[in-house]
């Protein structure tokens, strides 16, 4: 409850004195002198002597009867010197009707008082003086004064049958703090009968909102006496109601205030632009006592809040009930609240400072000690707020622990701690979370974050992950839903295969680029993902005005060191993604296993990729890719398992001895991209079985291949040269050889085993192969040039192994006695997977 400022309690009595005293002066003068014009100067002089201020009356009328009427028009009372305006009080019309006969019984019975278009200003200057403090003129002392008892016996009883104020306003100004307020009223009726309770009712307008009021007090004659004088008042606005019940005894007063508000947000127009939370069924009460202008005691403070939906402040937040209590101004505030956060019930309890710190002019710091408990969750908030009214200097230590985070989407225990700092005022100065530490069996994070709440929120800071197991987090996230909905976990795989596509249509998080700005530095000594370790991971994430980039991102991946630069533009339509990836040595076998595939190559390859595309998901970006892809490998191997299609007797001739993989001197690939199509500019492989060169295209839009390979293979004494085509979808490519070229290759393989090749067969092979033997014998390339093209001119290692010499045609190696001579047709079919 806010302590009422002392300066505001005087004006009702000042108004009452002006409303009653001024007409009484007018009536007294009228009863003595019946000439209105002769009475007016005397009335003016009497008021000026009493107030020390200039007083003017435009016109005065007097109606004589048993109930005489005095009417004043255009009344004005000057303001204090240095006031904000010339007049303190103005009224267009003041009318008083008083009965004469009751005067014989020493009673002043005013039948009716009417005031129209009244404008009263109550203000305090910079020195704290109120304009209601009048400098009265000194009056000569009378020779004799009646004894107190006699004065009491001679006092006149005053009664007012009806008081009406129509169309007026009362204004308040305080030069010390610039505070100003105006209350307007259209009609206000009051009565103060002799010996009976005074009543008042009507409607005023405060900040454009109608406020109904009613009041009942003790008898007017008993006001100011030693006996308790009862006061009861009620205010109502926008469905809310405030009640006051109390007593006055001399200068001492006490009372109890109670307010009931069905919807707090409905009072926002009365709160000077303060955004009131949507609290419902609010009840506040307190007992107050004091003497004169001073408040001596405030006790039994209580605030109750009913069920309220606060999802407008935070999605999923609701209050089921809350209560704040304090025994007095200096006593701690006890808080108990039942909340719901995203469907989970929580209970908040503890203490948060004292009411004295929350009152106007209260100084901090405000201590905070709260505890939050829920289903297996417990947290604490401890610290202080240096200036609670301005919400400055927030410094709170926060901890939270959960036995199981399954209700919040991740199974397993967890904890978080840190220190929340807000310089203020409010959230304008931003928020800082220092010393953040979060723990989960699958992950740990620590660091510092700062959030600036400008037109666009800006998040900055550093986060380190001493432990991060992405696989375990993924399993923990899906574990709670696995039991009731087992098919759900398998849903993504069939969906991906439903359209028989390899590249997924995974949406890209462009919305995050438009939501806020950020500058975060991330690091992790080790990350487990895909069952593989990633080490020395570091990245810097920058988001700015709808764009973002991760540069650099570096890591020792399971396949080797990789450096990435990722740029995204969420402002473009469609949005754009640009990825640059480089690696001095990428383990191709480990990379294939990480992708869930059998290795095609074994060894360390240089990677040079620069690709950009547009679209809202990964598939759309790939379908519009432009840039280039380069891969260069030296001194690698081809898995022996790739030749498992060969017959065993042929395999023994091709790869004699053991289960070793096939040596590969080099592999080079350079593919410029445009419009989602990779054009093969360089494709060359050279190893123990010979050489392969190729051209063609890889279509990322419909996921198809169109490649043509030129082979120059040797398997023991057999030489095989033939063009091979690979076409069709990625999932089911077709591998083929033209019939004529296949026949020419078979004849060539047969001739390669003859001491004296048959010239007629050579001619036939040339005819079937389109000039085959000479054309096939044309150079396919060599490792050095192909590797340089694949690297885009970047330096790199050269093959360490020498080129295997071609066997002499005149001295073929005889086959082992127990081994059958290889059939060239079987060899061709096996190598080509036919």
The low-confidence runs, each spanning 5 or more residues with pLDDT under 50, are 1-8, 147-155, 479-497, 764-777, 804-834
Radius of gyration of CA atoms, rounded to a whole number:
48 Å
Average residue-wise pLDDT: 78
N-to-C terminal Cα separation, in Å? 89 Å
Please state the overall shape, judged from the principal axes of the Cα atoms: elongated
- Work out the helix count: 16
Give the strand content: over 45%
Helix content bin: 10-25%
* Major sheet: 39 strands, mixed
Summed up:
By secondary structure, the chain is α+β, with helices and mostly antiparallel strands. Helix content is 17%, strand content 49%. Helix 1 runs antiparallel to helix 2 (36-51) and helix 12 (739-751) runs antiparallel to helix 13.
SSE inventory with pairings:
Layout: H1 11-32, H2 36-51, E1 55-63, E2 69-78, E3 87-99, E4 107-124, H3 148-154, E5 157-174, E6 179-192, E7 197-206, E8 209-219, E9 229-237, E10 240-249, E11 252-263, E12 280-291, E13 294-305, E14 308-309, E15 317-328, E16 334-341, E17 344-352, H4 355-358, E18 366-374, E19 377-387, E20 392-402, E21 414-422, E22 431-440, E23 443-453, E24 457-469, H5 470-482, H6 486-490, H7 492-498, H8 510-515, E25 517-529, E26 532-544, E27 547-557, E28 560-569, E29 576-587, H9 588-594, E30 604-614, H10 618-623, E31 626-638, H11 648-654, E32 662-674, E33 677-680, E34 682-687, E35 690-699, E36 704-715, E37 718-720, E38 723-729, E39 733-736, H12 739-751, H13 759-768, H14 772-776, H15 783-790, H16 824-832
Parallel strand pairs: 4-5, 24-25
Antiparallel strand pairs: 1-2, 2-3, 3-4, 5-6, 6-7, 7-8, 8-9, 9-10, 10-11, 11-12, 12-13, 13-15, 14-15, 15-16, 16-17, 17-18, 18-19, 19-20, 20-21, 21-22, 22-23, 23-24, 25-26, 26-27, 27-28, 28-29, 29-30, 30-31, 31-32, 32-33, 32-34, 33-35, 34-35, 35-36, 36-37, 36-38, 38-39
Helix pairs in contact: 1-2, 12-13
């Amino acid at each position: 409850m806010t302590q009422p400022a002392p300066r505001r309690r005087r004006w009702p009595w000042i108004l009452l004195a002006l409303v009653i005293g001024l007409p009484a002066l007018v009536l007294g003068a009228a009863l003595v002198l019946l000439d209105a014009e002769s009475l007016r100067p005397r009335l003016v002089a009497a008021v000026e002597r009493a107030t020390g201020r200039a007083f003017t009356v435009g016109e005065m009328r007097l109606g004589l009867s048993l109930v005489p009427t005095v009417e004043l028009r255009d009344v004005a009372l000057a303001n204090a010197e240095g006031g904000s305006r010339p007049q303190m009080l103005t009224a267009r019309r003041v009318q008083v009707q008083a009965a004469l006969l009751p005067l014989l019984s020493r009673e002043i019975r005013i039948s009716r008082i009417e005031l129209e278009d009244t404008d009263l200003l109550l203000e305090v200057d910079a020195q704290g003086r109120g304009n209601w403090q009048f400098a009265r003129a000194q009056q000569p002392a009378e020779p004799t004064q009646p004894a107190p008892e006699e004065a009491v016996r001679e006092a006149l009883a005053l009664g007012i049958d009806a008081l009406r104020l129509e169309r007026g306003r009362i204004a308040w100004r305080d030069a010390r703090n610039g505070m100003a307020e105006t209350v307007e009223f259209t009609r206000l009726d009051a009565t103060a009968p002799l010996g009976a309770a005074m009543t008042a009712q009507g409607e005023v307008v405060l900040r454009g909102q109608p406020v109904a009021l009613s009041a009942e007090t003790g008898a007017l004659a008993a006001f100011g006496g030693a006996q308790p004088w009862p006061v009861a008042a009620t205010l109502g606005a926008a469905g809310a109601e405030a009640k006051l019940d109390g007593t006055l005894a001399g200068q001492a007063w006490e009372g109890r205030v109670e307010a009931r508000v069905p919807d707090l947000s409905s009072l926002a127009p009365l709160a000077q632009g303060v955004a009131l939370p949507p609290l419902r069924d609010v009840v506040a009460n307190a007992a107050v006592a004091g003497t004169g202008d001073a408040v001596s005691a405030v006790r039994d403070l209580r605030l109750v809040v009913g069920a309220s939906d606060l999802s407008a402040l935070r999605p999923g937040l609701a209050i089921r009930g809350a209560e704040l209590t304090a025994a007095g101004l200096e006593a701690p505030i006890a808080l108990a609240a039942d909340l719901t956060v995203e469907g989970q019930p929580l209970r908040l309890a503890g203490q948060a400072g004292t009411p004295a710190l929350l009152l106007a002019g209260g100084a901090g710091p405000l201590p905070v000690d709260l505890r939050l408990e829920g289903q297996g969750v417990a947290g604490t908030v401890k610290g202080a707020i240096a200036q609670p009214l301005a919400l400055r200097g927030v410094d709170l230590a926060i901890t939270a622990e959960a036995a199981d985070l399954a209700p919040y989407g991740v199974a397993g225990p967890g904890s978080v701690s840190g220190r929340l700092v807000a310089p203020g005022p409010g959230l304008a100065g931003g928020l800082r979370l220092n010393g953040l530490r979060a723990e989960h069996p699958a992950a740990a994070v620590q660091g510092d974050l700062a959030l600036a709440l400008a037109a666009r929120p800006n998040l900055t800071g550093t986060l380190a992950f001493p432990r991060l197991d992405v696989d375990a987090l993924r399993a923990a996230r899906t574990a709670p839903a696995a039991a009731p909905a087992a098919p759900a976990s398998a849903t993504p795989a069939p969906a991906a295969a439903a359209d028989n596509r390899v590249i997924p249509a995974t949406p890209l998080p462009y919305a995050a680029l438009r939501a806020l700005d950020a500058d975060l530095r991330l690091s992790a000594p080790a990350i487990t993902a895909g069952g593989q370790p990633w080490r020395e991971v570091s990245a810097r994430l920058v988001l700015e005005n709808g764009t973002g980039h991760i540069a650099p991102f570096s890591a020792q991946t399971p396949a080797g060191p990789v450096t990435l630069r990722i740029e995204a533009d969420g402002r473009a339509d469609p949005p754009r993604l640009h990825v640059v990836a480089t690696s001095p040595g990428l383990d191709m076998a480990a990379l294939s296993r990480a992708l869930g595939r059998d290795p095609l190559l074994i060894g360390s390859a240089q990677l040079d990729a620069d690709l950009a595309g547009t679209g809202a998901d990964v598939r759309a970006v790939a379908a519009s890719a432009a840039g280039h892809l380069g891969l260069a490998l030296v001194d690698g191997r081809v898995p022996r398992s790739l030749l498992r299609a060969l017959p065993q007797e042929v395999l023994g001739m091709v790869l004699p001895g053991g289960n070793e993989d096939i040596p590969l001197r080099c592999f080079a690939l350079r593919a410029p991209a445009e419009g989602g199509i990779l054009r093969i500019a360089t494709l060359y492989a050279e190893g123990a079985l010979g050489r392969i060169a190729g051209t063609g295209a890889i279509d990322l839009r419909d996921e198809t291949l169109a490649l043509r390979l030129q082979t120059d293979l040797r398997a023991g004494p057999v030489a095989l040269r033939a063009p091979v085509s690979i076409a069709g979808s990625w999932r089911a490519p077709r591998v083929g050889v033209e019939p004529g070229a296949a026949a020419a290759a078979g004849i060539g393989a047969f001739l390669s085993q003859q001491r004296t090749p048959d010239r007629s067969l050579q001619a036939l092979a040339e005819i079937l192969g389109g000039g085959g033997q000479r054309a096939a014998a044309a150079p396919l390339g060599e490792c050095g040039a192909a590797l340089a093209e694949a690297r885009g001119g970047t330096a790199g290692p050269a093959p360490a192994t020498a080129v295997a010499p071609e066997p002499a045609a005149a001295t073929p190696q005889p086959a082992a006695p127990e081994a059958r001579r290889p059939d060239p047709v079987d060899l061709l079919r096996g190598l080509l997977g036919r």
